[in-house]
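During the second year of the project, the team shifted from modelling isolated chains to modelling whole assemblies. The rationale, set out in the original proposal, was that interfaces cannot be judged from single-chain predictions alone. As a representative example for this report, we include one of the complexes processed in the last quarter. Its constituent sequences, exactly as entered into the pipeline, are reproduced here:
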Amino acid sequence: MLGNIAGLYMRIEELLNHTGEWLRGTGPSAHIVMSSRVRLARNLEAWTFPGKSGKKDLEAVLKAFGEAVNRISALKGSTLFQMTEIDQVDRQLLVERHLMSHEHASNPEGKGLLVTAEEVVSIMVNEEDHLRIQVMRSGLNLSEAWNIINTIDDALSRELNFAFMPSWGYLTACPTNTGTAMRGSVMMHLPALVMTKQINKVLAAISKLSFASRGFYGEGTQASGNFYQISNQVSLGHSELDIIQNINGLIRQVIEQEEQARQALLLQNKPMLEDKVCRSFGLLKTARIISSQEAIELFSMVRLGLDMGILQHVDHKALNELFIMIQPAHLQKIEGKKLNAFERDTKRAAVIRQKLGRSTNID
Amino acid sequence: MTCDICGKKKATVHLTEIVDEQMSEMHLCEECARQKSSQMEQQFGLADLLAGLSDTSKPANSKESDKNVLKCSRCGLVYEDFRKFGRLGCGECYLSFKEHLTGLLRKIHGSNKYLGKTPSRHLENQALAPAEGAPALLSSDDLSDLKRQLQSAIAAEDFEKAAILRDKIRNLE
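Output from the structure prediction step:
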């Protein structure tokens, strides 16, 4: 009934063999911008919003969506997961890959997730709104993400009647999303602004301009490893392209500030910076037990070293992939069994040693 | 590093707060962080923000008793529940609570004018209406909406959509 459900378990296992296209570590300004994401919220006119719907209605929405997807050529080859059919670790794995929210994993009834090949597009069905469509790209690439998501949204809107009013746009469960129902967000790596203690000023300016900043692991998380996710808050009064231009303008300014701070660090104390980067690399390549917090902080330093030419011979993609692989559900799927906190710290260190050992020529 | 609040347990949660452009950092253990976060939710929860905002957008002539029974004609969501939880129940809620939402949306977004894209089916329905001889129900407000949609269709280089909108505007004018 719902797409490739039979091959579903295989697919989840297969996800472990690669990571999303958005982690490839290339694209515009990839030395500071890790990835760009655009998401749209859509509701189907014929049903009440998920929060006000019973199991039967949720399942009917999921079915209507599955049938529409089958008629859309741009979504050929994608898989529709039914949340109730997959276990808790697998749901956690999908969260760790940034394909869906924590909320979507915690209460699986009537919920679904569509993922395209390469994990460029994912669509949560029956989260806060009937559809939450997202597109992720590597580097600063919101315009490309918008073009892809716009095409998919157009195709879906030919198949499904969306809740829409000409005066207020797309109708969403939460009025903070009403209008374009679009959020564009950019994951930035800002170690030099943190080290030169300018980050507070930058984040304060961002919040004053009605943009929000969050940590790497999404809504409600603190920034860690010097990663900050910056996104628009406003969705009425501007067109989608205007919103994207505004975010791009802001991000370019932050990139400039980070670049200046990096140069300042080099000028002020190059040996100290080099020492910090190389020690971090050494720790990652030799540690036997490592927490995810420590790993992320060390990744940040290695990444900075790579982007500033202090380190060579480390693969950007391998480093980006490690951010995903070191999370609990991934470690447990790689190991093939449940691991306690200590076992995870040991497995994490092994995964990092193996991955960095393989991608470097020097040791 | 030990927790800033209890001073005993290891700090594992690092909290950054920005108040009036002043940023402060706190390092907390898990237990104290949980307490702190529920305090913050009480202070800044979205539902409270919405409740506060919608209060100020209350129409001047509405009576307290009217508001208590204000209800969505389709899903049955009571307006008071929207104020409490911050979530609407269906598309129809936007019409049922229109008076309140007009001000609320302006407060949240700084504007309540929609300037984004229009779904394909909606466009087709609009374009078909006059051909079927349906009476024109569109007001001047809808006309300016159509003009804005035309601009955004041109900006997005969606000329097929733009052509439908152009004809629609001509008919109306």
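The longest strand of chain B covers residues 13-19. The two ends of chain B are 70 Å apart (CA to CA).
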